[in-house]
């Protein structure tokens, strides 16, 4: 059951922009874990492109402990520093539940970097068409890479690749539209 929940959380975390604290809290709902177990589980499900650093795990756990969202369930002596096992508190479960139920604010991207670069290219006399062509080639390169990754991935990986591909497709449509309207935009910028 927890495996299914974690897979479902995979999509929520990636789509929602990834709250590491909430993600680690949710992973603790399966039972108490050491920091290195949390890192390994996080990396297995969410960190393929950006694994967590151990320091990030322990600083996050320290903050969650301070805020009463986790507690130390046990301390084990080892060859190195003591290993703490963390457990989620009732307040932590409530916090995760609230986070999962709260919709994320959609980002309208009204002032994107791509738009800024196109306008600045026009304002400075640079070739905005070349900028759009270069960006289009980069988007297509990444789309090919994600398509290959998707074809070899499990369902969770396929879903995250689809999410990224849909955003890249929208960017490509915008690049085409901007290229088609470039002369008109140049006239508006330089009346």
UniProtKB/TrEMBL annotation:
GO terms for molecular function: DNA binding. Keywords: DNA-binding, Membrane, Transmembrane, Transmembrane helix. InterPro entries: Tscrpt_reg_PadR_N, WH-like_DNA-bd_sf, WH_DNA-bd_sf. Gene3D superfamilies: Winged helix-like DNA-binding domain superfamily/Winged helix DNA-binding domain. SUPFAM superfamilies: Winged helix' DNA-binding domain. It comes from the Bacteria. The chain crosses the membrane at residues 9-28. Residues 24-93 form the Transcription regulator PadR N-terminal domain. This is DNA-binding transcriptional regulator, PadR family. It comes from Streptomyces harbinensis.
């Amino acid at each position: 059951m927890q495996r299914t929940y974690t897979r479902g959380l995979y999509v929520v975390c990636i789509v929602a922009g990834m709250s590491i604290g909430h993600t680690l809290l949710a992973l603790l709902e399966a039972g108490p874990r050491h920091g290195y177990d949390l890192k390994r589980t996080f990396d297995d499900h969410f960190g393929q492109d950006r694994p967590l650093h151990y320091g990030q795990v322990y600083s996050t756990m320290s903050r969650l402990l301070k805020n009463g969202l986790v507690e130390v369930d046990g301390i084990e002596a080892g060859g190195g520093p003591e290993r703490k096992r963390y457990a989620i508190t009732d307040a932590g479960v409530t916090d995760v539940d609230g986070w999962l139920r709260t919709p994320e604010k959609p980002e309208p991207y009204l002032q994107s970097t791509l738009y800024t670069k196109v306008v600045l290219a026009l304002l400075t006399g640079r070739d905005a068409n070349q900028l759009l062509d270069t960006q289009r080639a980069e988007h297509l390169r990444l789309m090919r890479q994600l398509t290959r990754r998707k074809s070899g991935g499990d369902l969770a990986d396929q879903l995250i690749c689809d999410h990224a591909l849909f955003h890249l497709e929208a960017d490509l449509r915008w690049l085409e539209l901007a290229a088609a309207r470039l002369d008109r935009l140049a006239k508006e910028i330089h009346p």
